Amino acid sequence: MTRDLSTDLIHHPYLPPAGFEAPQVPVHKASTVIFPNVAAVRSRDWRYKGGYTYGLHGTPTTFILEERIATLEGGRQCVLAPSGLAAIMLVDLALLAPGDEVLLPNNVYGPSRELARQELARWGIRHSLYDPMDAAALVRAIAPQTKLIWLEAPGSVTMEFPDLAGLVAAARARGVLTALDNTWGAGIAFKAFDLGIDIVMQALTKYPSGGGDVLMGSVCTRDQALHEMIKLTHMRLGLGVGGNDAELMLRSLSSLPMRYRAQDEAGRELARWLAQRPEVARVLHPALDGAPGHEHWRTHCSAAAGLFSVLLDVRYTPAEVDAFVDALRLFKIGYSWAGPVSLVVPYELATLRGAGRGGLQGHLVRFSLGFEAVADLQADIAQAMAAAFGG
Ligand SMILES: *Cc1c(COP(=O)(O)O)cnc(C)c1O
User: Fold this and answer.
1) Atom 2 in ligand 1: residue holding the nearest Cα
2) What burial class does residue 58 get, using C-beta atoms within 10 Å of its C-beta: 0-12 exposed, 13-18 middle, 19+ buried?
């Protein structure tokens, strides 16, 4: 029987030899997964990595990435989401129901708070803010309906490093689950699960990607029952990640420890230099002496992200601060961090601290280190300061 060419181009008899191995994990792409027979359709369980059922439930590429991220975080299980924010949403929707309350630190990643304020609220889930620098305040904030406490170390933008062990102890004493946004620590600076944290989320978009070109998030656990709750919600929400993105992430992941240390070293060098500048009122970098929560950073961490904020002196006008940021040449204006290009973003202090506390004054500018030479970055800041502030 002869078949038409259009059929043969799809159902071709050739199979390459098995056993191909190469340094990089191959990209497997699928919505459809082909089963050998009906019995396989009936017997395969998509929940465990025992086989393949549908692209949304995983491919060899995403399974390998999940296992490696779980190892990075010191967890046992991992699910991937299409962005860091989607990973935060996944945790919230998996664990919260109408009538429940979630607690967020008052220096939380802004979009996480907006998610609670605008979306969770519509489903009858309340949120409250707590001061992460006061474990006793967290104890007081926990109510009978509190089902989840988010942690972040350090806080987004204002960079206070909390007493994680104290916050976890407060949550555990009341039997409330804790979830950490570990984007800053990236699984390198400290081991979150060893502190008793239940769920560790990360924006893989930042350090693990390291290229400024992939969006992805992860949710890791050590507890199988907790993982299964998250995994079921993940499936029902349809949070898939693409094969090409997973491959890019795997390619970068192998250099993460080296990149983290290099950007840490560069960040501290630049932060120390900035602390000496007369234009700078304060440098907010948790590894620097005198920074908010520096003592907790010292207790918990062996490294720091290449990310810090500075408070420029109050004597400058907002327009002068904007002119300074615009005058930077190597530092590009843009969100995210941990890619090859150094980045800068000015923030309005007034919009950052939930309760308006924190005692910070000045104009806040956040810097993230890329891979450029520190001396060149220093020269760039010096010329921009001269251009915008004179002298
Ligand atoms: C970037 C970021 C996120 C969100 O990640 P996206 O992939 O951009 O959605 C969450 N938390 C922190 C601390 C971040 O820096």
Assistant:
1) 203
2) buried
